[in-house]
Amino acid sequence: MKRLRHAGALFLIAATCLLILFGLGELGLRTAVFSSALRIESLRQAWRYADPAFDDDFWKLTRIFGTEGQAVFDFARPDTVLGWTIPTTADNPLGVTSLASVRPDSVRSPVLFFGDSYVAGLELGESLVDELNEILIDRTALNYGVSGYGVGQMYLRFLQVLEEFDGSGVPDRPVVLVGILTSDLDRTVLSFRGHQKPKFEMANGRLELTNVPLSLDTREHLGQYPVRIRSYLYRAISMRLRSLLGEEATDVLFGYKERREQRSTVNRALFDAFKTAAEVRGIPIGFVIFTGMDELQPSGWRETYLRRTLAELALPHFDAEAHLMTRMEQDGLDAGDVYYVENNHLNLRGNAIVADGLTGFLESFAPLAPR
Asked: Phi and psi dihedrals of 29, rounded to 5?
């Protein structure tokens, strides 16, 4: 019995010492991360503490650290439903991303192109939609892409634009294209990504928009919904172990396995909702699958998911990666010739190649009637 008491005492002492050391480590790390005078910039990196695909906390930390968040407002404005959007104004009556004002009465056989920055473009005048308009003869492509959007935001903007379109003064019925970058699937399960954003969830088998109206003041939002990480030291150790042991072995601990399932379910429901809304209005709709330069080969699970899901829902889709790879092989190009290496977006040449393929895709599912 005496030996047991002695062992128990030693255990308590060791546990107490470990807790004290852990507490000191936590205090030191928080000082290095958040102190103005003693901060260590290399520790102010959100990926050390959270996953960008699943954690609002990752994006809140990037905003707090000042490494992400403002770029999406270069052209967009805050919005209580969409998070941010391109507003309809007297100078921009259709609410599109464009160098010049687009007059509704000048639009013929409109193609409404929704998406994120792959559609919106990094430079006005050099976007995929601009390149598409260089090729199209009897159609006008309208750029409804907004940087940073996820699939849910695209769907909400699609509904909003369609409601406004009948009274826009455009004489012809539209065709819709929706450009999906593979990482847009991840954005669906986030309620914050640089700024607060809408979030869809499943409730009794139905899509439900859960968190609108949104606050327009990001600082106020972060005060009301702060980062939920309780121990930065624990998260730093855990994320390091995750990178060493693999995601499959550790994601149950983080709740990421459940988020993966939620991501697949919600995105499929959104694609089905796109289809239903277009069918009700008698509007042809097609999807464009984009991949970043780092995903060109081999195909990842996101591309496989998109191809399979769109096929199962009988939604026409154009695989921009496959088209790019074919043209790159034919013309002797490499990825650096069609992408901006520094930001993983298609450059002017890449956009021109994709636009060339899109013209045939449009005719395949929404051919123009003879005039």
From this structure: -65, -45
Q: What are 305-316's pLDDT values in tens digits? A: 999 999 999 999
**Which CA distances in Å does 292 have to 17, 128, 297, 325, 348?**
48, 15, 10, 12, 15
Closest CA to 62 of 151, 195, 175, 261: 195
The size of the chain, in residues, is 371
Minimum mean pLDDT range among 200-204, 245-249, 346-350: 245-249
For residue 345, the cross-strand partners are 340
Q: How far apart are CA 317 and CA 143, in angstroms?
A: 18
What mean pLDDT is predicted for residues 309-336? 96
**3-state helix/strand/coil string of 314-371:** CCCEEEHHHHHHHHHHHHCCCHHHHEECCCCEECHHHHHHHHHHHHHHHHHHCCCCCC
User: Is residue 237 assigned to a domain?
Assistant: no
CB atoms within 10 A of CB 341: 10
Domain range for 183 is: 60-216+252-365
With tokens 């205090």, the residue in question is 27
What's residue 169's pLDDT?
75
Q: Give the pLDDT mean for 120-144.
A: 92
239 domain-assigned: no
Mean pLDDT over 138-160 rounds to 95
Between 247 and 90, the higher pLDDT residue? 90
CA neighbours closer than 13 Å in the CB half-sphere of residue 319? 17
Which whole-number Å values give the CA distances from 60 to 94, 191, 258, in the listed order? Answer: 32, 10, 21
Average pLDDT over residues 195-206: 92
Are residues 79 and 153 both part of a single domain?
A: yes
CATH of the domain at 184: 3.40.50.1110
pLDDT computed for residue 219 by the predictor:
86
Asked whether residue 86 falls in the same domain as residue 140, the answer is yes
* Residues 287, 129, 274: CA angle, nearest 5 degrees: 25
